[in-house]
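Re: export button greyed out
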Amino acid sequence: MTASTRTFSLKEFNRRLRHGDAIFDALTLTAALLALLVVLAIGWQLWQESHFTRQTFGWELIIGADWNPYDDKFGALPFIYGTLQTSLLALLIAVPLGLFIAIFLAELAPAWLSRILGFLVELLAAVPSVVYGLWGVYVFAPTIVKPTGEFLQSFVGFLPLFAGSVSPQYSRLAASLILAVMILPTISAVSRDVFQAIPRAQREAALALGATQWEMIAQVLVPYGLSGILGAIILGLGRALGETMAVTMVIGNNYNLTASLLEPGSTMSAIIASQFGEASSIDLFRSALIEMGLILFTITLILNMLARLLVWRVARRVPTELRV
Amino acid sequence: MFRKFFSVAAIMILAAMAVACATPTVAPTSAPAVTRIVETKVVEKVVEQTKVVEKVITATPAPQTPVAKPGSIVINGAGASFPYPLYSRWFFEYAYVNPAVRINYNPIGSGGGISQITAKTVDFGGSDAPMTDAEYDKAKGVQMFPIVAGPVVPVYNIKNDAGAMITDTLKFPTTTLGDIYLGKITKWNDPVLANANPNVKLPAKDIKLIVRADSSGTTYTFTDYLAASNPEYKAKMTGANKLPKWLPSTLAGNQNPGVTAIVQNTDGAIGYVEISYAKEGRLPYGAVQNKAGEYVVATMEGVQAAMADFGNDLGDKLVASIVNAPSKTAYPISTYTYIMIYMDQTDCVKGKAALDFFKWAMSPDGDKFAAALDYVPLPDAVQKLVEAKLSKVTCQGKSF
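Workaround output, generated via the alternate export path:
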């Protein structure tokens, strides 16, 4: 085709544009399928590689509490319990704090302060976990966790959750607290962005109707941004469930099942990381650790789905006028 | 929805076909043809040059022995982390001795070293613990040999009643460490400890047990000693073990640095580490009563005495436990660290280079770096055994 014959035709232009759309569609679809493929491939691989222990122990691995690899005892319950306990406690601490930070940054702080604090919060999210771990071992555990643990021990020590322990500074409590510090920036930074994305008109409408600042935040902004906030919480939970390095440095790596937060414990990711080197030469041991990975993978999936379900339920309940 | 998907899929297929078709049809068009001609000319030139070079070489009357380029022979190893500080120093220094050889070592732990040499993904493996019979069955033709030895020391962090750290060298009578790790001795002022250390005022504090979280050659050596020195420990805890089931109250850290960190920050803690970590972490370490009844602090001489005691016990596998040695000066918590290679090498150049390196490492040239880093060179008798074994290593069935 030469230049002289090329004339502008709306039909031709539209056709080419549609082609562009189609190619773009194809590209994005491929990318999306790739993500799905990776998830499926990981799940499939974990399932395949763990067949030794699945065949030998079945459900025993999940409900068993005795971990002694050289005696062929593989009970993952202490690690499952440790992972869930530390992650959930970390969420319990970090969610309200993170929301307060987000609300302050987005609504209450003057712009200059919000910018500085916001930058610092984002910086916290970028600190590598091994640095948190080092700080945890040398500073956080002896100076903050230890007195907290001893305080809890003396006041509510009659509860199994806070039963006495030899050295409360390296314990599930220490891991939970350090996880809380680690997921705090994720939760607050994402929630701040959610609050900032809420249209001005929503605030003005609420204030014009005579709402106080607190009512405006609690009754308009939080419900409006709830799905985004839940997204932030899921991100934080994801990081807490999978965090390895910082946790293994402060949790005490003890493989016994005890209820107390003040006892040393371990998590699934911590035991996989610390024992995989050895396990690679023993089939059953390796298979047990891979199955632990599979359990962690499944728990993460289930929690994510539950959170999605929650978002969906909540989103339906919010009056449509608020969501315009 | 489906139509859209199909149209997208069709376009993807079409695009793939178009790419496939386009490649061969590029050549006949005029522009690329020029580049092709240029390329062929370049290729021809290179071929001509190579020919010339070949002629020169064949014409040279006395062919020179090929001098290998620096770093052209790469040897890979993996395994125990206990000797890693020394190995990396050796590799660094050996680059001056033979610049052609570059050695990499990945300190993934003894178990990892055994599995990697079994899978032949490395040229040599490292391990602090001897291979089990089952592991030998999987890795036919593997030979272990000791290359250096070292002590494991009990470290502690006890603050006295005034709040100051006790820096005295505590004495641990024969069965004491075993009893402590069995949970039979639970206080620092236990009569056994108090009687052995009359000059130190020990506080009435709980003993907190610190161990390794990862499977470890250091743990293997320590438990090997506990089992040898304490019959009750041996009966209850199945002897030497890289990853034993400790008491419920133990705290565990990852690797030597993890244990050191927890001991440093826990009042009343006792742990066990390789000696250089105790020194770096400024932790006091104890004198342990040996089989002859003497209290011995970990020193080079103490470990060498332990090696000498068991110098004839290495057998064909060239492994021996050297804990709880009988002579008066022997330090009881000592261990060899081993290298694993195949007796028949597949790559002659690499095999020769690796053997030369091991011989250098065991020579006085290598020994001085070992001593500087608190490792203990092999005594002559053991070194002779290792050298005799290494001289039998072959390459593709032939001797070097």
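The longest helix of chain A spans residues 10-49. The button fix ships in the next patch.
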